[in-house]
């Protein structure tokens, strides 16, 4: 079977472990996203997040203000995904002029993304289905007769996802009224706003 890095480089999809749920990864190119959306049966109107290994990779994709660096430093690594202004207009399936970024913490995910570059970090399951916590089983569930999805082995942290935050502006200062928690996960909404208020 083709190794995961080769699959990713040619635009294929790979299931990899994260500190929460297994992720379905592909490079952020339109032809790779075509396959990912087909495998997940996901609507184009629902953007997916990007996983990065570090803030340096994040800055190549989006404007990352100092406040976001402080926010990500304060909470456990990998526990927050944040929507930021993108540096250029991206594929609509990545959010266009706004992109959701997650700095991954799982050692396997970090190593993979350091090697290949940013990857999609959407959950490795059919859209609307319950998460599958085993990378091998998740890969099998997404495989088709025409496209067998490989996986990278690793133990995932659990079924609670990262907390998804929309930052009001990449150039703005902390503002509890302009920042939204779009999905509560590992970090509670109250914790996010307590942190924001402490910065004002």
How would you explain this protein's 3D organization?
By secondary structure, the protein is α+β, with helices and mostly antiparallel strands. The protein has a single domain, classed as DHBP synthase (Alpha-Beta Complex), CATH 3.90.870. The chain is 31% helix and 16% strand. It starts with a helix and ends with a helix. The model has no long low-confidence stretch (mean pLDDT 93).
Order of helices and strands: HEEHEHHEEHEEHEEH
Radius of gyration using CA atoms only: 16 Å
**Low-pLDDT residue spans:** none
The number of helical elements comes to 7
Largest sheet: 6 strands, mixed
Sheet/helix structural class: alpha+beta
> What is the CATH superfamily?
DHBP synthase
When the domains are counted, the total is 1
- The level-1 CATH class: Alpha Beta
Overall, the morphology is globular
Order of neighbouring strands in the sheet with most strands: 6-3-5-4-8-9
Can you name the CATH architecture? Alpha-Beta Complex
- Please provide the count of β strands: 9
What is the average per-residue confidence, as pLDDT, rounded to a whole number? 93
Helix content: 25-40%
Strand content: 15-25%
Layout of helices and strands, plus pairs?
Blueprint: H1 4-9, E1 14-16, E2 23-25, H2 30-40, E3 50-52, H3 55-61, H4 66-74, E4 80-85, E5 98-103, H5 107-116, E6 119-120, E7 122-123, H6 135-142, E8 163-166, E9 180-183, H7 189-199
Parallel strand pairs: 3-5, 4-8
Antiparallel strand pairs: 1-2, 2-7, 3-6, 4-5, 8-9
């Amino acid at each position: 079977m083709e190794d995961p890095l080769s699959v990713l480089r040619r635009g294929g999809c790979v299931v990899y472990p994260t500190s929460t749920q297994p992720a379905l990864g592909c490079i952020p190119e339109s032809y790779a996203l075509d396959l990912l959306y087909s495998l997940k049966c996901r609507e184009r109107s629902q953007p997916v997040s990007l996983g990065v290994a570090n803030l340096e990779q994040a800055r190549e994709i989006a404007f990352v203000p100092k406040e976001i660096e402080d926010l990500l430093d304060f909470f456990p690594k990998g526990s927050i995904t944040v929507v930021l202004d993108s540096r250029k207009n991206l594929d609509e399936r990545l959010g266009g002029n706004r992109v959701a970024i997650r700095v991954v913490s799982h050692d396997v995910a970090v190593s993979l993304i350091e090697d290949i570059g940013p990857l999609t970090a959407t959950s490795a399951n059919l859209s609307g289905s319950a998460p599958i916590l085993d990378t091998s089983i998740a890969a099998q569930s997404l495989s088709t007769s025409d496209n067998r999805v490989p996986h990278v082995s690793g133990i995932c942290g659990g079924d609670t996802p990262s907390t998804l935050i929309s930052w009001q502006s990449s150039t703005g200062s902390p503002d509890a009224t302009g920042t939204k928690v779009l999905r509560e996960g590992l970090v509670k909404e109250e914790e996010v706003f307590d942190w924001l208020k402490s910065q004002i």
